[in-house]
Amino acid sequence: MGFPFRSDVLCLDFVATVAKRDMADRELIVTDDDLQTWFYVAGLPPAETPIADGALDRARELREAINHLTRSRVDGLRPDPSRIEVINRAAEAGPPHHTLAADGTTAVHSPAVAADRILSIIARDAIDLFTGEYRDRIRRCLGHDCSLYFVDRSRRGIRRWCSMAACGEKASSAAYRRRHGAKSTVSQD
Rounded to two decimals, what is the model's pTM? Predict the structure, then answer.
């Protein structure tokens, strides 16, 4: 689907819907259908269609508020209170809920709901992240051409890449080539 899910946290995966942030800034949620697709791929309930007027703009505003808060946390800066208010306001809508099926043992996902209620799941996830035990483990990927944030849940807290399979392997391969390229140059002399 083209959406990266490498941060280990829903709200940071939502921030990643701007690809190559601060490098080439490619918007991945251009239309209401893109937003609906992201909800689906993220495992969230579907939004009512058509998505309500302004919901796409509110989704982007929430995403940029979470990005600002994340960047502030990583860079050790004080966040803009107006951005925090955007997240708090989005959380107020209240997430959709499961219901109990007629058999009494099965949870049934809610039917399609207003997009703002789905956005509240993302906002509440951000609140949980920035107030929870991993708030000091939010990192920016050190991959050469990566702009993703992630939560470092490693025991030692020294993870450097959003994903070993994506950015970590590239960095390891480049380091290997540098080491072995330097050795072969030295051995040829």
Answer: 0.84
